[in-house]
Amino acid sequence: MTNKIEVSWKGQMLFESVAPEGSVMIDAAEESGGQGKGLRPKAMMLTALAGCTAMDVASLLKKMRAEVDDFKIEVVANLTDEHPKYYDKVHVIYKFFGSDFKKDKIEKSVNLSVDRYCGVIDMFRQFSKLTTEIIYIEK
């Protein structure tokens, strides 16, 4: 299967990335000539990682009947100092909100995503040390 996107220049450092499913704006920081009107490319990489695993977990939680009130994924990544700068360490934090958690099923959902299903996580493993954490927040 082949995926294709097209990035079009919109002036200065602003670009629009268009895929069959939708579009997203990409921009640089103001100190780099941007206007702050879109995500920066490296932030998009972290967004892709979080989005990929989030979809896996949401689907698996539903299949396992382990619903939660809400969940969020926070990604904290360390950017190297030397060019080309890349993320050498990435920590993914899964935050689950609710009460009476089915922790065994929640942890199984996260582990299946991290170890088996999320292709973006697998791509990140090629260049970074990836760690995960689960936090339960009682409501």
How would you describe what is shown here?
By secondary structure, the chain is of the alpha+beta class. It has two domains: 1-39; 41-138, GMP Synthetase, Chain A, domain 3 (2-Layer Sandwich). Helices cover 32% and strands 33% of the residues. It has three helices and six strands, in the order βββαββααβ. Helix 1 (41-63) packs across helix 2 (103-117). It starts with 5 loop residues before the first strand and ends with a strand.
Number of helices: 3
**Widest beta sheet: strand line-up:** 1-2-3
Helix/strand order, N-terminal first? EEEHEEHHE
Largest sheet: 3 strands, antiparallel
What's the CATH architecture of the largest domain? 2-Layer Sandwich
According to CATH, what is the class of the largest domain? Alpha Beta
Q: Kindly, what is the distance between the CA atoms of the first and last residues, rounded to a whole number of angstroms?
A: 43 Å
The value of Rg in angstroms is 17 Å
Give me some keywords for this one:
single chain, 139 residues, alpha+beta, 3-stranded antiparallel sheet, elongated
